[in-house]
Amino acid sequence: MDRRRFLGLAAAFTAAPALLSGAEPIRLGLTPVFLDNEAEVITRLRDAVGQGTGRPIDLIQRRTYQEVTGLLLEGGVDAAWLCGFPFLQHEAALALLGVPVWRGAPLYRSYLIVAAEENATDLAGLEGGTHAFSDPDSNSGWLVTASDLARMGRKPETFFQRALFTYGHRNVVRAVAGGLTRSGSVDGYVWEALAQVEPELSARTKVIARSEQLGFPPFVARRERIGDETMLALQTALLSLSATPPGRAALNLLQLDGIIPGDLTLFDGIRQRMRDVTG
Amino acid sequence: MTRPTSLPLSLRVPLITAGMMVLVGIVASQQVMATLGAVQEERLRELARLHVDGLTVALGPAVLRRDVWEVYDTLDRAKQAMAGQRLVLTVVADEAGQVIAASNPLRAPVDSLIEPLRQGAQPVETIRLTGEEPHVRVLSGLVFQGREVGTILSELDVSDLVAERRRVLLWLLAGNAAATLILALGGYIAVRRMLHPVAELAAHMARADGAPEAIPEHRIPAGDTELARLFQTYNAMIGAAAAKAEAERRLAERERFVSLGRLSSSLAHEINNPLGGLLNAADTIRTYADRPEVVRDSVDLLDRGLRHLRDVTRATLEQNRLDRHGLPLKPEDFDDLKLLFAPETARLRQTLDWQVDAAAAALATLSAASVRQIALNLLLNASTAAGEGGAVGCTVEFRPEGLCIAVSDSGPGLPPEARRRLLSDDALLPGTGVGLRLVRDLVAGLRGRIDYSRMPNRSVVQVTLPIGGDTC
Questions:
Q1: Are A178 and B68 in contact (CB < 8 Å)?
Q2: Sheet of B122-123, strand order
Q3: Measured on CA atoms in the order A249, A251, A256, A260, is the torsion positive or negative?
Q4: Signal transduction histidine kinase dimerisation/phosphoacceptor domain location, by residue (chain B) (predicted)?
């Protein structure tokens, strides 16, 4: 039994009393940000947060960012792990609970990837090809490339011969690796994580452009609920994940260091790109 | 090249058995291969049908929306799930034949035309495995909500099936070859055993000395009624043949006496004629015993007459010697013949043209008894045909093809019945003479030839006898 599995089992046992308490569950929405081994990630995260809050956690997934954002805005979930782009799109209604720390900072990059044997070395060289985006509401999976093109005075739908959405960063890597598209816009964090857990997949792609550092996808809640008991419990649990064994197990699986409160200035880069796209 | 029919029966029958086994083997192999092919094709059809049906259900909505990623995602996951299996490539195209996505986009890029890949593709329901191609392409319509919204083209790896067929074919060939060999060998031995009595029969029929031999009673197979009957029939035939040969021998013997009998009156004259002169000479000696010159003349006359009588007697005896078989022919034999035959022509006031030109050394290869009998019979026949005051000729000479004896007469020619006896083996009519048929048999025994020719007033029978046993 490896360490992760052991920690997972331990977390499940320690969380059991809370799950059995019969309290109202906290509903946490998830975008399909991360990897394909989601079942295990979800279990670990639910267990860790559940233990931290002392309440059962319902992790709710949807295929697109838009659906999760919609759920959050209409109260279908209490909080959500969103991308910085939809967070900023609904900044008036949403507030930060915390920002994950990856490789020492709450920041990440968007990668422009191509097949390993592709000759193009930059975005301009990909004109007329096919391109895989992750999600129309994804910062790294759409906004970065779209804003780069906007700065060149171009639009994705005309710059590329065909652009398609795969609704998942891992899917972008699969599309490029499998030859379905010539290039793709992917979350740098996901690509790096894949390089660790699925090197045979990521090795069939290569990164030809990296964006500047941008705010990592944050945990957010509706602004009016910030400060209520549930949100406080959830925020406390998230911020202290790195302090508990189940929390560290979940973070390890996600290859994250921890979660910090963060602030809005982390997302200035995204805000700038949004402005570039909308012109 | 040896003709099949010239092969011995004991080889021919096993060969035919082997040939039929090969034929049966080929037919059986074809049946096995056809069945194997049908089973493989059915398996392949089933797999392709499942694959297409599964994809149709999964892809219908995505194809309708022309959702490239959804289609690719489904195909890609199906490929991962079926890794190492038969599926090599799946391409999904829209109604217009434009590729939406393929499990391997490098072979069928998005938006390219599916047409080039459709070459040689077969419908699912009629998939056939032909040739040595390791891949088979299957084409199927993608029907969703009762409407054909696209096309699914799959490439299946059938190299294992092809290899299996090749393997089975090799095994069949090897197995059939071995079975054919064993059965042919078994057939050869069995038929050889079965035909052993026939071989024995053949051996008895063709003994080295040319005379068929009866099969001893204890060698007649017991229990096998057909062969036993065959053997008994053969033995009966041998007996009949021996009896016929004996009868012919006796007939020839008799013929000798018959021909001599015909000569007897002439010979009696031949002996009687000088007798008066001789008796006169004896009287003269008795009357003029004291006249030496008259006695000397009479004694000379007596001596010539007696010598002639001696020659006639010797020739007659010679013709009837029973131990003459095997004696070589000599020029003197023709002299004897002339001595015996000439009185007959004299009796009938016929002219005899006698020309014998034969060297002793060459004649010695022929049997004296046979040649004398042949010539005598022909001469007697010619004399009869020539009739009173006619002409008879006898010419004996050597030619490249052998000794030729030509007997001619001034008669009206051989009647058809006589010609049949002399020149053919047709059965004799009862009551007819056997002299000419005996000539024919004797000439055949010496491997000779008889030619008959008819000229305006002359008939010639020519017998050619090869010297030294060669046929002329």
A1: no
A2: B99-102, B87-94, B147-157, B135-144, B122-123
A3: negative
A4: 259-325
Domain enclosing residue A42, as ranges: 3-106+215-272
- Residues in chain B, overall count: 472
CB A94 within 8 A of CB A221: yes
B356: part of which helix (H) or strand (E)?
strand B351-356
Mean per-residue pLDDT, B324-332: 77
- B106 and B14 in one domain? yes
Which of A156, A200, A214 is CA-nearest to residue A181? A156
> Do B372 and B285 belong together in one domain?
no
Distance from the Cα of A79 to chain B's closest Cα (Å) equals 29
Residue A60 near chain B (CB below 8 Å): no
Q: For residues B231 and B358, state if they share a domain.
A: no
Q: Tell me, what's the ipTM?
A: 0.83
Instruction: Look over chain A and give the mean of its residue pLDDT values, rounded to a whole number.
Output: 88
- Asked if A180 reaches chain B (Cβ–Cβ under 8 Å), the answer is yes
Q: How confident is the model at residue B406 (pLDDT cuts 50, 70, 90)?
A: very high
CATH of residue A31: 3.40.190.10
Q: What angle do CA A148, A151, A157 make, to 5 degrees?
A: 65
**Does pLDDT of A17 surpass 70?**
no
- d(CA B73, CA B340) in angstroms, rounded, equals 128
Claim to verify: residue A15 and residue A91 sit in the same structural domain: yes
B290 and B437, same domain (yes or no):
no
Partners of A171 on chain B (C-beta within 8 Å) are 69, 73
Q: Report residue A123 as tokens.
A: 């975005």
Eight-class DSSP state of B104: S
pLDDT higher than 60, residue A15 = no
Q: Which amino acid is at B117?
A: L
Q: Got the DSSP string for B257-300?
A: HHHHHHHHHHHHHHHHHHHHHHHHHHHHHHHTTT-HHHHHHHHH
Report the run of H or E that residue B55 belongs to, with start and end.
helix B9-65
Distance between B68 CA and the closest CA of chain A, angstroms = 7
Distance (Å, whole) CA B460 – CA B386: 12
Residue A279 lies in a domain: no
**A34 plus A122 within the same structural domain:** no
Q: Which domain holds residue B25?
A: 4-171
User: Which tens digit of pLDDT belongs to each residue from B291-319?
Assistant: 888 888 888 888 888 887 887 777 777 77
Considering the domain architecture, whether residues B32 and B167 belong to the same structural domain is answered as yes
Residue of A nearest to B99 (CA): A180
Measured in angstroms, the CA of A103 and the nearest CA of chain B are apart by 31
Is there a single domain that holds both residue A220 and residue A197? no
Please write the tens of the pLDDT for every residue from B10-41.
677 767 877 887 788 788 888 888 888 888 88
Question: What number of CA atoms fall less than 13 Å from residue B79's CA on the CB side?
Answer: 19
The number of folded domains in chain B is 3
Three-state secondary structure readout of A113-161 = EEECCCCCCCHHHHCCCEEEECCCCCHHHHHHHHHHHHHCCCCHHHHCC
Question: Which of B65, B67, B69 has the highest number of chain A CBs within 10 A, making it the mutation to test binding with A?
Answer: B69
Q: pTM score, two decimals?
A: 0.62
